[in-house]
């Protein structure tokens, strides 16, 4: 159902209104537990510069706002566009096959659809990815490879796919 008509700025305080909006939006989330799943509903507004993969609907979503420079522009080279939105699109698709997405089937249900031997090989690859990043020094201290493995799998898939596609362009700039 429509939510925006419930969000009214009435208190005279931006902080109080923000708190009230948060309560209303949280209540809306709880309402969804008793409703049929709406797989057409987006988890982000169109004006947000972001993108996501949703395992429970097996969809990738790119709000309109990300389809601009530096991610994408007709003024940019094909290499810049592959390095921008191309990498983002492939990153989100790769989330369907990360440690979380891999547990959902094509209908978005938590369901093991892999052959046992393939899933075991996948888990070995995950361990390698965890080890690759575990302990890497960052500004916030050493990285926890296990905690960030889903993003690292998606980045690896995203960059590899975008680079492969970019190399097919006549004006590729590596
Ligand atoms: Zn991601």
Structural class: mainly alpha
- State the CATH architecture of the largest domain: 3-Layer(aba) Sandwich
Going across the biggest sheet, name each strand in turn: 1-2
At the first level of CATH, the class of the largest domain is Alpha Beta
Q: Give a count of the beta strands, DSSP E runs of length 2 or more.
A: 4
Question: Helices, strands, pairings?
Answer:
Blueprint: H1 14-31, E1 52-54, E2 59-61, H2 78-95, H3 116-133, E3 137-138, E4 141-142, H4 149-166
Antiparallel strand pairs: 1-2, 3-4
Bound molecules: zinc ion (ZN).
What does this structure look like?
- The protein has helices at 14-31, 78-95, 116-133, 149-166, and strands spanning 52-54, 59-61, 137-138, 141-142.
- The mean pLDDT is 95.
- A hairpin with a 4-residue loop joins β1 and β2.
- It has two domains: 1-35; 41-166, Collagenase (Catalytic Domain), CATH 3.40.390.10.
- It has 174 residues and is mainly α.
- The radius of gyration is 20 Å and the shape is globular.
- It has a two-stranded antiparallel sheet with strand order 1-2. Strands 3-4 form a two-stranded antiparallel sheet.
- It is built from four helices and four strands.
- α2 runs antiparallel to α4.
- Residues 91, 95, 151, 154 line the site of zinc ion (ZN).
Short characterization:
The chain is mostly helical. Helices cover 41% and strands 6% of the residues. The chain folds into two domains: 1-35; 41-166, Collagenase (Catalytic Domain) (3-Layer(aba) Sandwich), CATH 3.40.390.10.
